Give the backbone structure.
Amino acid sequence: MSELKDVITSYNNLSFSDRIVFYTTISNDIAISDDTQSFLIETRLDGEGSCIYCEGMHVVKNGKRKDGVQRFLCRDCHRSFIASTDSITSRTRKSISVWATYLKCMLDQKTLKQSSAECDISISTAFTWRHKILDTLSELTEKAYLTGVVEADETFFNVSFKGNHNRSRDFSMPRKAHKRGNDVHANGLSSAKVCVPCAVNDAGISYAKTGKLGKISSDCIKEIFEKKIAPHAVLCTDKERAYLKLAELNELNLIQMDTDCRTISKDGRNYGIQRINAYHSRLKLFICRFHGVSTKHLGNYIVWNDLLSGNHRNKEAFFGQLLGQLLCARITRYGQDIPRRPSLPVAA
Ligand SMILES: [Zn+2]
């Protein structure tokens, strides 16, 4: 009996994200409980005080739904909502534990088929959930800020129109279909390739984003990295001239070297671009597993790779933290919009 008391006491001391880990460990089907409701109210509505839509502070209780979920009304924008409105779980009938299991599958790099079987959802739902989760996390990775010694270089992926044909009424194939995904014959950096500028610093923080088609430009580098690399940081790149403008604007200490030159000594320190080359290798290997990633979803797979390559010593804590962030985040892009995304990035 005293053991049970100990368990209850320990449970009460857990954070919400740890409770979710606990739940999903002991049960496969926990519905959205009162506990979850109170957590969402506390975190998403700032303790019943803040409106989800306008962040106004004049929020009042507005009765309950048939299933007992509390409704709220904002006196400022006159809109009604519940604690999970515009969250990752809204518009789905699955419980939080199913989402938790799915997130675990993603961290374990399981295929859509394996994940859908484990969560008892269809493969198309599994695909939509994958991108809902990655969309949300991509907004979080937008907060990345690189200081110290930063290495940057761009890598290229073949343009792929995979998945653009099914539900899009206005998509027409802009070129003849390739027989195989990697069957791109154009030499050099043609418009058949999409450029992905990547940067990683000496603390292991990385940031990469789908850029433009073909060769990189100063404007594209500026647009992607201007607010991501701290002013006065050391920036190591190859001899690409597109970085000059960014370096000047952000007053970066730019060190450019030959691609095959592994290190260059300056002020007694060694600088190189091995870290960014290793990042490219990991990213290429990861993308390769999907046998061709549609260009419109490439950005999400980059986020997924970043998530997996982070140095997470305590995996359970990382999972709980990630799940907490996902549940609290406000969703701006919905599942039905995923197939309708533009097939190509807009060139800068
Ligand atoms: Zn409001």
Summary: Confidence is low (pLDDT under 50) at residues 27-32. The pocket of zinc ion is lined by residues 51, 53-54, 56, 74, 76-77, 79 (CB under 6 Å).
